[in-house]
């Protein structure tokens, strides 16, 4: 019985040593797939994703969970691998989760923000979470990642700053409102084991509770607010697993393998040193221990991998300017401002050279000759339209016909007057004739002379008029002077 206990302790110690060995020497292994465009997929039991908004990018994923990210002129780039779940169990129901990773940075340039660590989602409530152990930029992610800062906490032997944020945007369930949780390590590290569940437990103490787990993956993300970021983030070792630290279970199953009751962690002193082990040699039995031929059942089912591209909490354009960037942009602005007078002098025309000013315009509104109210003719003054003209013409004719009887009566009344006028005309003609005769002969003209002149005039005159004309009385017959040939 003692031999079995010692064997368990030695096995655990061996696993711990093996768990630390990946930091000193590790390399990619297993099948691989190279992706050059945005894609969500899986290789073996490992789920992966590549996403970038621009640039010439690629990523190579391996069946052992390791991966390599290469980006060039990318504004925002990320790749990740790890475990996917079906959103039916909480992290407590799944078991204690860990992640081992090793990061190798190669030719990293122009990175303004970055996250390296653990990334995932949960449902009910909908939460997007980050555990950041490193970053590819020269700036540690700061207070701009969340609108609520809970403070600094020691989690799994290191100090992390915890943030909480509420956001509306794209998520695994579409555009909606969701929470964001952040744990950001104060001192970055390139290799180590992340106790994922320990962060979950610390968040729950602060009222930051996760729901049913959707995924837990090792993440590499880099972004730039300028022309784009370039470089390679290589992860020669990356595994997310459920169980004891260093005791990796099959990544394809979300079940926790049963741990032996004797698999306790070797105690350490406060200084981190391992307690001394007795130098005595334990007796070894010559008997060979029976080895069971049975193998532990392994689930053949693979968890479904979501085909949705997971959104990310922040884009480079949303980050406020950092002090160094602000000073650089301020100096650029001052340089451009100093060039402004020189550029202004190059313009071909200055305001003083413009040909016409407003005061020189020839006509102002008050000088316009005619206003609408002064127009001579208005629509009401226009002559009658054809239809109106015909109507008025008919009215005139009707009135004319009505006045005909009156006109006829007037003519009848004026008939004597017309006769008198005719008589006067004849008398005038006679007088003119007599005057011509007197002028011609120079003698007093008698009626005979008149008769000899060939006139044929019948005039009704009074005796007085005949006396003036010196007409003999015997010519007068009933007051009628007959002059005829």
Automatic annotation (TrEMBL):
Enzyme kind, highest EC tier: hydrolase
Low complexity composition bias: residue spans: 245-274
GO molecular function terms noted in the UniProt entry: carbohydrate binding; endo-1,4-beta-xylanase activity
GO biological processes: xylan catabolic process
Gene3D superfamilies: 2.60.120.180
Lineage: superkingdom: Eukaryota
Catalytic activity reported: Endohydrolysis of (1->4)-beta-D-xylosidic linkages in xylans
EC number: 3.2.1.8
Segments crossing the lipid bilayer: 407-432
Biased composition (Polar residues): 276-298
Pfam entry (one): Glyco_hydro_11
Residue segments, region Disordered: 245-298, 354-377
Pathway: Glycan degradation; xylan degradation
Domain annotation GH11: ranges: 34-235
Leader sequence residues: 1-19
Keywords: Carbohydrate metabolism, Glycosidase, Hydrolase, Lectin, Membrane, Polysaccharide degradation, Signal, Transmembrane, Transmembrane helix, Xylan degradation
Family matches, as InterPro entries: ConA-like_dom_sf, GH11/12, GH11_AS_1, GH11_dom, Glyco_hydro_11
Record-stated family: Belongs to the glycosyl hydrolase 11 (cellulase G) family.
Protein name: endo-1,4-beta-xylanase
